[in-house]
Design a protein that fits this description.
This protein is of the alpha+beta class. The chain folds into 3 domains: 107 residues; 124 residues, Sandwich (Jelly Rolls); 72 residues, Phage tail protein beta-alpha-beta fold (3-Layer(bab) Sandwich), CATH 3.55.50.30. It contains 7 helices and 18 strands. Strands 1, 2, 3, 4, 5, 6, 7, 8, 9, 10, 11, 12 and 13 form a 13-stranded mixed β-sheet that branches. A 3-stranded mixed β-sheet has the order 15-18-17. Strands 14-16 form a two-stranded antiparallel sheet. β4 and β5 form a beta hairpin. α1 packs across α4, α3 packs across α4 and α5 runs antiparallel to α7. The radius of gyration is 24 Å and the shape is flat.
């Protein structure tokens, strides 16, 4: 049985500060084998420790590229250099690094600490729960699991997941996403959580979808879209064979605006996608696109309209008009 110990979860600020201290020490003496082993042991305590140390390294790299404060000083101003002590340097560096970490990671810090399982950009993950249910996480997604007593409950914290629930009529299985919930006894379905919506697609069995506006019962082939701000639902029909196409690395689109397609491709790209042409963004697109290659998928999408896709770097894709 999977269990959670909330009291054992480290405080976010403490974790970041520890990572900052450790990374700074390692940066100052990279040849110290003992310190290297200490860092390895510290990071191995949990995925949160490892993520915090990786974040410290990334933030340190970013701050190290910042120009010195004197770089843009007027020529007429005489700069009197301040020569701090080593203790002041290290103390200030740790404070600055911890502050940068807090700013850079604050939006996801709570997610790190709540999630039992999560995926990064471009990554998917399959797992088996204690009751035998199968879960597949889409890219950039996270879940928390409650499996104490007779409860079978999963919290979708971010992104999208596919569930193949082990049948147990005596113990319903619930997936909670924001202010909604999906309850089943044994079935297969997708749940996707977005800032303003929750989507549920049912491929097998039946589910009850509960929300603040009421309840919907879905049958195979139903795709329900719930507006979190309007508290309204819309149910459309989709071929069961086409559901969960993302699990095969495919995006199926029929008559959607290009801007909506870009929004669905973004989680699979490690950088920024910039659409420079508003008219192109409003064009409608239909097709099957490869999520494993965002740039290629976008080229296929804009080709009918003469659009261009330019990959400036691994971190930037520009979509422009003809």
């Amino acid at each position: 049985m999977i269990s959670q110990d909330v009291t054992a979860t480290p405080d976010t600020d403490d974790l970041f500060e520890q990572a900052a201290h450790l990374w700074l020490a390692f940066h100052n003496t990279p040849e110290d084998a003992g310190l290297r082993e200490t860092a390895r042991t510290w990071a191995a305590q949990s995925t949160d420790h490892a993520a915090a140390l990786q974040a410290a390294e990334k933030v340190w790299g970013l701050t190290g590229q910042m120009p010195p404060a004197t770089a843009h000083a007027p020529a007429s101003v005489k700069i009197i250099p301040f020569r701090p002590t080593r203790r002041q340097i290290e103390g200030g560096a740790v404070t600055a690094l911890a502050a940068c970490l807090a700013l850079a990671i604050a939006p996801t810090a709570t997610l790190w600490l709540k999630a039992d399982y999560r995926t990064g950009l471009g990554e998917t993950r399959s797992l088996t729960l204690a009751d035998g249910s199968q879960v597949q996480l889409d890219t950039n997604s996270a879940i928390a699991i409650d499996t104490f007593g007779d409860i079978r409950r999963v919290h979708l914290l971010k992104g999208r997941a596919f569930f193949a629930v082990a049948r147990d009529k005596a113990h319903p299985f619930t997936v909670e996403a924001a202010d909604t919930s999906v309850t089943v006894t044994g079935t297969q379905f997708d749940v996707a959580l977005a800032p303003k919506a929750v989507d549920v697609a049912l491929s097998e069995g039946s589910v009850n979808f509960d929300h603040k506006g009421g309840q919907n019962r879905l049958t195979p082939g139903d795709h329900l879209h719930y507006g979190r701000d309007t508290r309204t639902t819309a149910v459309t029909r989709t071929a069961v064979a086409d559901m969960s196409a993302w699990r095969r690395g495919r995006l199926l689109i029929e008559g959607d605006r290009l801007s909506a397609i870009v929004d669905q491709i973004r989680p699979y790209h490690r950088g920024f996608i910039w659409v420079t042409d508003d008219a192109l963004a409003h064009e409608t697109v239909t097709g099957v696109f490869d999520l494993r290659d965002p740039a290629a998928a976008l080229r296929v999408a804009v080709a009918p309209y003469g659009g261009r896709v330019t990959q400036i770097s691994p971190w930037l894709i520009v979509v422009s008009g003809p």
